[in-house]
Amino acid sequence: MTGAELSFAVFTALALGGALVALFETSVVRSAFAMFGTFLGVAGLYLTLGADFLAMTQVLIYAGGIMVLYLFGLMLTKPSPHERNLRRIGLAAALAGALAILLLVQLFTGEHAGMPAPENLPAPEPTAEAIGLAFLRADSWLFAFEFASVLLLATLVGAVYIARRRPEPRAEELS
Amino acid sequence: MPTADFFPLLLAVPLLPLGAWLLQVLVGRSLPRGGDWLPTGAMLGAFGVAVLLYLRAQGLGDEAEHFVWSTGATGGGHGWKWFVSSEGLDAGLAAFRAGLWYDGLTAPLLAMVAGVSFLVHLFSTGYMRGNSRYTAYFAGLALFSFAMLAMLVSDNLLFVFMFWEVMGLCSFLLIGHDSLDRQKPRPRAAAAAVKAFLTTRVGDVALLLGLAILWNGFGTLQFHELAVAVPNLIEGQQGWPSWLETAGVLIFLGAVGKSAQFPLHVWLPDAMEGPTPVSAMIHAATMVAAGVYLVARAFPVLAPGVLAIIAVVGAFTAFFAATIALTQDDLKKVLAYSTISQLGYMISAVGLGSPDGALFHVFTHGLFKAGLFLGAGAVIHACHHEQNLSRLGGLRKRMPVTYASMLLCTAAIAGVPFLSGFYSKDAILAFAAEGWEAGAGMAATLPLVLLGLAAPLTALYMFRMFLLAFSGEPRSDHARDAKEVPLPMSLPLVLLGLGAVFGAMLWFAKPHPSEDAHHLATILASVSLVLGLGAALLYFQFRKRDAGRTAAALGPFARAARGLYGVDGFYHAVTVMPVRVVARLASSFDRRVVDGIVHGLGGFAVQLGLRLRRLQSGHIQRYLYLTYAGLLALTLFALWRVS
Amino acid sequence: MGLEAYLFVSLLLFLLGLIMAAARRSLIYVLIGLELILNAANLNLVAFQRFHPGAGLDGQIGAIFVIILAAAEAAIALAIVLNVYSRFGSIRPDDMHTLRD
What we know:
heterotrimer, C: mainly alpha
């Protein structure tokens, strides 16, 4: 087993294992931490794909930012006590399975023309500088980048607005 | 040609009742006495104006007979442009012009119609007292009078047609008046109103088509322009083109419907369901006279062949209706058939080439028939709505004024010399004799024969009715208790009785048949009168035979006449029954198939909605499942497209 | 490792997220499921870019935008969850069904 294969196996195990635990775990907190593992695993897979900047971003934003957000959300709400968490898993699994079969068939029988073997791929290069330039060059992604910053600002304001406490009519009064 | 300007006065004649109608409809119910004085007063005013106009026309002396005044020909600027037609532009006639018309024939007719209408209004104030729809009745009467007066002063056939239709509407409303009575609704009145409306409609459709053909051919419908255009055309073409003959027949069909000629006469007897003053109005002054007036005015466009048809149809109707009148036991039905018979005379007169004579008879007939109907109304009013002749009788002493008036009118219609009816009927017979002398064949002979046969019958059935109602002993308690009617009702009777005597003197345009024909007609009329009157006196005065035994003596002929010769039954079988069958089929088709489809579609949509609304459960995760299903479907689709 | 391996991992991750979003009975789980789906999509993007030489960096940049959107989504969604909780007293999706006819 080469180093590449080993790292792929480890990170895949981390990602899928985390996802499985998150799916079947009854405790929400543990599910959230399992999801943390998934994020790290995916970040590792990014590394094996030569996307070093993206891996760092994944760790910073997902594992650092979003994860904390979720933990806050969990702390501010009360988990439902006796949750039979997998009640409708049958139907969901059936639909997902059907989809999986279709996609797997396509995956293993479809053509991959022009796709070089993994051995022939050029060695990955550091991408941070290239991505930074791509975002800042006017003929590239500048507009989308600025737009994303505006979106994040709007999100910030919107989230604060939605989540602030105010007297609310309760559900019975609404219906 | 008179230079006198008739315009403002002429316009006032129809506008007075129109205004009265409008006020009556809008505020009539809140006026004292239900507003009856409003139309009555307006009619008195219209009558006064019409008399003024008449006197002005009379002032022309010998010219009165021939003068013609119309806005189109002599009015100098009056009259108005209604619409411009592109066909008219090609023909050099830029626009359809409408205006007023007044001539030696219109003058007495206008005064007669306004006068009779006024008297009917006056009579109605007594006769209709206490009716639950008193105001509406007078509104209808006023509109009716307006339409007839407006028709008489119109100078073109299109306006004649329009006011003619207004009259159709009014007759419908008034015949069916009692069907909406609050105390005692009469469904039969509604049926009679519908029958009158539909039957005259058959003729109206033909008339409209005829007018369309005329407009297409000449680009004008004005009397004076048609009177010039038609001879020019015939001179140019050496004969009557077939489209003009068709138009003539169609116009005549319109008159057949309106003036209740065979075979469209069936509505008129049924129209007796209306209040009796309305019958007087319809039979004397307005409705039925309109048909005769129409053919008289349209005379210039009628081809000789069409005139022959008109003469024969009119004469046949005169005879045919007279035989039915002989067998009727209902006071008003006798009068109704007598009207049909007299209308036959008038129509026939037009066909015999004398529209003047026809209108002369319209004029005198309007006077005495109004008197007869109002007299019948007085009898019915006095006898608590008893109108069966076999239960009347002996009214002479109890209702002397009514008796006297009825006697004069009956004598007039029967053709007693020196009364008004004598002159006009004599003239028509003279023209028939003239036609017989001049021509040959059936078309020339038939009118004289039929009209000659109808003349004694007229005297017979009229005096039969009169004697059964007034002489002898009362045959029911109602007749025994009868009392003379009050002044508003008896005054019109007196006036109309006088009109029946002297009416002929008021007519300008005395017909001038040839000398020989005139002698023949006079002899014929006199013999007829003697025969008819003698038979009536024999049967109903001296022998005191009742109507039933007379009928029995005449056997199958009487039975056929009593059964109206099966015309009504024929219409019932040929038109009413098929329509009912079709209607029933259509109705069941509508209920089963059309409604089935509609209900099915509606039910399907409702069921679909009920099922689909379950999807809108409000559970977001169920929506998510649907999203997955959609994703699956899209994936399948994408893979299928790729492979 | 070949492209298929990455795609396979991505597919499994996607399916797990799918099941999680649909079957778990808490809004937090639904959101976690959505995050898994987004991660699977990102993995796909990066893997395809890696195995297409000459594709430039577009795959990675796309992934970055997805991460940006995911962050925005998480912030808004959690704010909504808090709101729902204060209104319904629960964050079970089954308890929220006032949006119906």
